Amino acid sequence: xxxxxxxxxxxxxxxKTEEDLFGKDGLLKVLSKQLVERMLQTEMTHHLGYEKYSIxxxxxxxxxxxxxxxxxKTGSGEIEIEVPRDRKSEFQPxxxxxxxxxxxxxxxxxxxxxxxxxxxxxxxxxVSELYGTEVSPDLISTIxxxxxxEVTEWRNRPLDKLYPITFIDGFVVKARLDxxxxxxxxxxxxxxxxxxxxxVLGLYLGETEGAKFWxxxxxxxxxxxxxxxxxxxxxxxxxxSEAVEATFxxxxxQTCIVHMTRHSLNxxxxxxxxAVAADLKKIYQSSTAELALESLDDFELTWGxxxxxxxxxxxxxxxxxxxxxxxxxxxxxxxxxxxxxxxLNSTLRxxxxxxxxxxxxxxxxxxxxLAIHSVSKKWNMPIHSWKQxxxxxxxxxxxxxxxxxxT
Length: 407
Description:
The structure is a single chain. By secondary structure, this protein is an alpha/beta fold. The protein folds into three domains: 1-100, no CATH class; 102-146; 160-396. It has 18 helices and seven strands. Helix 9 links the parallel strand 6 and strand 7 (252-255). It is elongated, with a radius of gyration of 29 Å. The two termini are 45 Å apart.
């Protein structure tokens, strides 16, 4: 809706400062009040079927019957409005329903702040300082608890039949278990769709890690409609490879190169990290598995005496490190890129960092869901080089590739 300069000039009037426009008692707050009241009057006209003072309203049996004052919390602060009434008390406002004491925009702001990692006290102070609106801890809890049904629905939603590449990663949160606060790992499962877009398939709060736990997780994904994965990339999670073999026997299990490299560099002081990382890169960027093994031999000759644990770790995990070397560069780039996993994990860690500990699993999932919901709005484009990777998938997994995509 275009607003002319003449209308803006009239609205601004004698306002001269930012406070006059956006302060607690500024133009925006006054305008919000008048807009709300005007919309309520329009709703009343629609309800009655005739304009105020119109002769069409004579003898209709219902008419306007004054106004009732009501205080509403908005994103611009608290405003006192006048809600029109009808003589038969049949008017049901849509903009602000009966017994509603806040606009939905305030709910959206609270949820956004909550999902960004702010505590309830932080949100109280933020809303109070910016808008002059006092929101109680109970109100914030009520607003955020309202998304729990969405969280449950989201965690149980149907999945696509195929996600060509899937990643599993985890991070630690403090949560209460059997009345004791302890470290719990949140496992995040990411998938790349056939369109090349990122999607979080599931969140799981692990108590114990092992084949039984992973069998439960992967079976649940299958029950939600997931039938096939070409490549599953994860860290060395205990029991995961065995569970993958049992539930998705055709899936190639790939140890995450990003995590493997990071774990290796934990043994290295800052002075050598750049050189060691460069030599490790020669291993996983080799053209073939044979050349990668030669690069590992060279790495051990160079660094074996100084950092023996690194080469030993790569050799012990060699069979799970090298599967991706059978793929062309277009697919490898997707597998070992850090952007897919790290950007979201950074957001999720930030959302839980300031909260001390969580009292229930629901409270953990609520925060993470809101953070994912916010960041996933940006996931509207396929990942880089996906078309090339998809063409290679069509050849390498021809018997499992969807026929509708084969031209």
